Amino acid sequence: MAQLGARMWVVPGGRVPFDGTGPEPEYTSFDQLCVLNTGDAEADLRLDFYYEDTEPVGPYRLVVGARRIRHVRVNDLIDPEAVRLDRPYGCVLRSPVPVVVQFLRQDTRLPGAVALATTMAHPVD
User: Fold this and answer.
1) 110 with 21: CB under 8 angstroms?
2) Strand 57-64 relative to strand 122-123: parallel, antiparallel, unpaired?
3) In the chain, what are the helix, strand and coil shares in percent, each to the nearest 5?
4) 58: alpha, beta or left, given left = phi > 0 and alpha = psi -120 to 50?
5) Over the stretch 2-43, which tens digit does the pLDDT of each residue have?
6) What does each C-alpha distance from 59 to 3, 53, 113, 123 come to in angstroms?
7) What are phi and psi of 111, to 5 degrees?
8) Which residues share a beta bridge with 49?
9) CB neighbourhood size of 108 (10 A)
10) Which of 83, 81, 4 is closest to 38 using CA atoms?
C-alpha cells in the first residue's frame, strides 16, 4: 500500500472545553488528534500550539509506529507545558513521513448530553 497523507497538518479551531458533567473519564470534555501512519517508518511528530495572546508553545513530541494509529487527547499534553484549557488554540503538526490527521472534540458541558464533533485537519503539503 502506498503511504498516505501529508507531512504538515493544521487544526485552526481548537478549544478544550473546561467544564463537563457526569462521571469521569467517559464524561470528560476533550479535544483529540487521531493520527494514521500507513508507512513503513515510525512518525516522530512535533506539535506546536498557537494562542490569541501569547507566543506559540512547543514542540510537543509524539511517536506513531509504522503501520499504526494513535489517538492523543490534547488535554493530556503536558510537556513542555500543559495545553491551556478553555482557550482557543490552533495547532500545527509536523511529521518526517506522511500521516493522516483527524480532529475530534467531545463536549460534555450540558447535563446529560454529550456532543461529539469530528473533522479532518487541513493538510499543508
Assistant:
1) yes
2) unpaired
3) 0, 55, 45
4) left
5) 689 999 999 998 888 777 666 666 667 888 999 999 999 999
6) 25, 18, 34, 19
7) -55, 130
8) 57, 91
9) 21
10) 4
Cell triple for residue 123? 493538510
| Backbone phi and psi for residue 75, each to the nearest 5 degrees, phi listed first | -55, -30
Q: Are 87 and 25 in contact (CB under 8 A)?
A: no
| Contact in structure between 98 and 39 (CB atoms under 8 Å) | yes
Q: Scan for cell 516522530, then name that residue.
A: 44
**Cβ-contact 59, 91 below 8 angstroms:** no
Q: Are 56 and 90 in contact (CB under 8 A)?
A: no
Look up the pTM and report it.
Answer: 0.87
User: Positive or negative CA dihedral for 13, 83, 34, 59?
Assistant: positive
Residue whose cell numbers read 473519564: 25
Instruction: Convert the pLDDT of each residue in 83-102 to its tens digit.
Output: 998 899 999 999 999 999 99
Location of C-alpha cell 497523507: 5
